[in-house]
């Protein structure tokens, strides 16, 4: 026998043992699906009964596949955003460089910065400072900050 035939028989015997472990045997499955004697069923169909372990594995695989697809789409969106930002910056730089005078170029650069600056809106106050600011803001009479000597 050739090496390929031996590998196919080994694979067939492994699949047969897996199918026997589930509720239907390999021979019954061949009769139902009307396969010829020389063909080997490598992948069970969706309508075949699965045991609990196989259902759990299938759910894990589907979940993993969903995560991979989501990560791939996030990466595509990120790459598109970066490409847009670099193209926008290059176009603005070209517009600035093509101005007839330096004054107009400086004015355009001030109005249209090539790179957008990200403003960090993080709260810099801690709890005590926040309470003190709210106390001052709520004081309508100004008793907290107006001091008389």
Structural notes for this entry:
By secondary structure, this protein is mainly alpha-helical. It has two domains: 1-49, no CATH class; 50-116. It contains five helices and no strands. The radius of gyration is 35 Å and the shape is flat.
Highlighted features:
149 residues, 5 helices, 2 domains, flat
Short description:
By secondary structure, this protein is mainly alpha-helical. The protein is built from 5 helices and no strands.
Topology:
Layout: H1 3-21, H2 26-33, H3 52-97, H4 102-111, H5 127-138
Helix pairs in contact: 3-4
Which stretches are poorly predicted, pLDDT < 50 over at least 5 residues? 19-23
**What number of structural domains do the residues give?**
2
SSE order in H/E notation?
HHHHH
Overall pLDDT score = 77
